[in-house]
Amino acid sequence: xxxLKYQLIALLCFLFSTPAxxxxxxxxxxxxxxxxxxxxxxxxxxxxxxxxxxxYKKYVPQxxxxxxxxxxxxxxxxxxxxxxxxxxxxxxxxGDFMRFTINTVFGLGGLLDIATPAGLPYQKEDFGQTLxxxxxxxxxxxxxxxxxxxxxxxxxxxxxxxxxxxxxxxxIIQTDMQGRTKILIxxxxxxxxxxxxxxxxxxxxxxxxxxxxxxxxxxxxxxxYDGNPPKPDLDDFDFN
Length: 240
Fold this sequence. Notes:
The protein is mostly helical. The chain has helices at about 1-15, 30-60, 60-75, 75-85, 90-105, 125-135, 155-165, 165-175, 175-195, 200-205, 210-225, and strands spanning about 140-145, 150.
């Protein structure tokens, strides 16, 4: 598994150093690669993802699907709490701990979300956001990977750290790498099902890739600023 990880990193480094990337958009330096991966992912969605997703939604009742989604959100809470502590957000970390405790004990291991109606909503935190708030990586390029979709490089590195040191796996579930992989795949599928219907909106836009990129970057920006991103400075716009 470690060798596979290093091979993937080496492959990405090779791809981003090839002549295909010599002509780059300064705002999206890997646009050529990203567009090809985006088209691949759309084709994968049409041929594989959408049929499986529709079957899942057809044969698995909504209450069961909601329970699965709640369960995976609950698994993320120890990692959320860790990143909030690393960011100095003690109050939010305490809220994560309370949310995890309430839903685990009274929500059948997280299948029921009791905490949100009680005023403890889920707010995603990851190590990519932590890096930004530490001021270590303020600018980060956008990249689209096959099947898994869009990331910023900061988020991608953060995901590697989160996966290696996730307290849920290390101290609560105590599963091996095979178990982690199964949980990750199931979680990614659940995330995909949540947004599957929006993909048609992306495909119908004037430039689907640009629409996808800008939507994703706005989503990450909202996460970094906990839903309250700074308003753009009007001095940055040329109205002439």
